[in-house]
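worker-3 :: picked Sulfotransferase
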Amino acid sequence: LNDAEKNPTLVPHRGFNLISGTHDPDDVDQIYNLEIRDSDVFVVTYPKSGTIWMQQILLLLEAKGDVSAINHLNNHSNGDLIPWIELNGNRQAFITAPSPRLRVTHLQHQFLPPALSQKKGKVIYVARNPKDVLVSYFHFHKLANMLETPKDFDDFFEKFMRGDVFGCSWFEHIKTWYSHKDDMNMLFITYEEMIQDLHSAVEKISSFLGKELTDEQLASVVKHSTFNNMRKIPQASYEKVPDDLLSHQNGRFMRKGIIGDWRNHFTQAQNERFDQVFLREMEDFPLTFTWDM
Ligand code: A3P
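worker-3 :: tokens ->
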């Protein structure tokens, strides 16, 4: 048994790890057969890359910057601003939902409907530098009750490097999705560019989606998507997610929201090993990452 198979919170399935109780493998397999509309938008991320942040931006773009559009969302359910396609029970609702159907997913490319690769619908891939992803994911494992609590940072570091986590290997995730960039209507955007210039990022997303917002409306989307303002909105900050899902006493979902926190966690030896693996895995990858502010 490898580590993922020994971990009771993970369900290895077709080369990917799902979360036990959260995802049903048979149901996940049915996602492939969903019919896609031109107006569908899928946000795709490896965990901890800014998924909820992108949810907030899309929701606000849809509402032309009107933050009260979030008010009707139920604080006491799992609080998702935009539904996960892979979450138990969400697939059926997708079939009959009115357009535009906005969805998020952490799944690998192989699970999504092939129509996306025939330029039907749109995909926004949000990438984040993997050292910060690892750190954010470590803290999230302490918070999230559906995931195994790591013994310590070193233990989690090893699991992440082996891909024995939900989402599997960060390297495989980004490389596979990126290799389909040209056969999809895909916007590839990074967490770091969103941090460095949120206004430009929001404009880019808006124009990718073909939205026409006034300057004032765009400014409102930006204003309500900053880290500090999202922290004040319970639906966006996950503060109201029930305790059986998140152990709030162990930390905050909206934790730091910065570039380079890995420097406070990685030992020098871990950093050297990470760099070696990164160089090997990402040798042919055309983009560079921002590791520090
Ligand atoms: P940290 O743990 O590094 O703070 P996801 O939504 O994919 O799970 O990603 C969560 C990460 O995105 C967390 O990172 C969280 O703080 C960060 N995040 C969420 N909203 C953000 C925002 N408006 N600005 C910057 N970072 C944000």
